[in-house]
Amino acid sequence: MDPDGVAKAFVEHYYRTFDTSRAALVGLYQEGSMLSFEGEKFMGATAIAAKLTSLPFEKCAHSVVTVDCQPAGPTGGMLVFVSGSLTVGEGEHAIKFSQMFHLMPAGPGNFYVQNDMFRLNYG
Amino acid sequence: MDPDGVAKAFVEHYYRTFDTSRAALVGLYQEGSMLSFEGEKFMGATAIAAKLTSLPFEKCAHSVVTVDCQPAGPTGGMLVFVSGSLTVGEGEHAIKFSQMFHLMPAGPGNFYVQNDMFRLNYG
């Protein structure tokens, strides 16, 4: 399994889900998963999905610019580091963001998000 | 030990060292450490320090804007996610950057960098 390929496939899947059916992101997290979203902390799939679905916009579009990935160590996890830009609602101005995921194996060829940290990079 | 306090102290130490005596960063990495720097990959303290000290500027100044941190899981590691801006040489224009570190315990109260991923966020 090519780690860079897995990371790119995960990132595509994650943002496509975020931009089209945000509530379905719940399936990517587990009970011990953690999210830091603009400095606010959430734990567990339910709390994380509640935060993401309650964000005050209906439409959004992520555009990924870079994806880096490294093995996280002996646990089989993988670190994925993303930069890109984000358009919200009918907004014309894209806002830069960066995000990191710590993916953990969840069965053959499958991963869940153990750690997720998201920040906007205001210009 | 307060993880947020440890993360902030590490980040201050890392960028102060980077900006004043870059070669000393070698002490923060080990043989299995990995660096992705603007998409280029390096492994091991020696290769990583060689890359960082060969960057084509002598003066630089990091200004940290946000530091997020989460425990990485059962290995005792810690994930640290930084955003900020960077001025190089006599440059007047700061460039935004984001960077993530996976810190692993290296004795009481001490950590080394297992994973390091760095990206500039061009504006």
UniProtKB/TrEMBL annotation, chains A, B:
<dbReference type="GO" id="GO:0005737">
    <property type="term" value="C:cytoplasm"/>
</dbReference>
<keyword id="KW-0813">Transport</keyword>
<dbReference type="InterPro" id="IPR002075">
    <property type="entry name" value="NTF2_dom"/>
</dbReference>
<dbReference type="GO" id="GO:0006606">
    <property type="term" value="P:protein import into nucleus"/>
</dbReference>
<dbReference type="InterPro" id="IPR018222">
    <property type="entry name" value="Nuclear_transport_factor_2_euk"/>
</dbReference>
<dbReference type="InterPro" id="IPR045875">
    <property type="entry name" value="NTF2"/>
</dbReference>
<dbReference type="GO" id="GO:0051028">
    <property type="term" value="P:mRNA transport"/>
</dbReference>
<protein>
    <recommendedName>
        <fullName>NTF2 domain-containing protein</fullName>
    </recommendedName>
</protein>
<comment type="function">
    <text>Has a role in nuclear-cytoplasmic transport of proteins and mRNAs.</text>
</comment>
<feature type="domain" description="NTF2">
    <location>
        <begin position="6"/>
        <end position="120"/>
    </location>
</feature>
<dbReference type="InterPro" id="IPR032710">
    <property type="entry name" value="NTF2-like_dom_sf"/>
</dbReference>
<dbReference type="GO" id="GO:0044613">
    <property type="term" value="C:nuclear pore central transport channel"/>
</dbReference>
<keyword id="KW-0653">Protein transport</keyword>
<dbReference type="Pfam" id="PF02136">
    <property type="entry name" value="NTF2"/>
</dbReference>
<dbReference type="GO" id="GO:0006913">
    <property type="term" value="P:nucleocytoplasmic transport"/>
</dbReference>
<keyword id="KW-0963">Cytoplasm</keyword>
<keyword id="KW-0539">Nucleus</keyword>
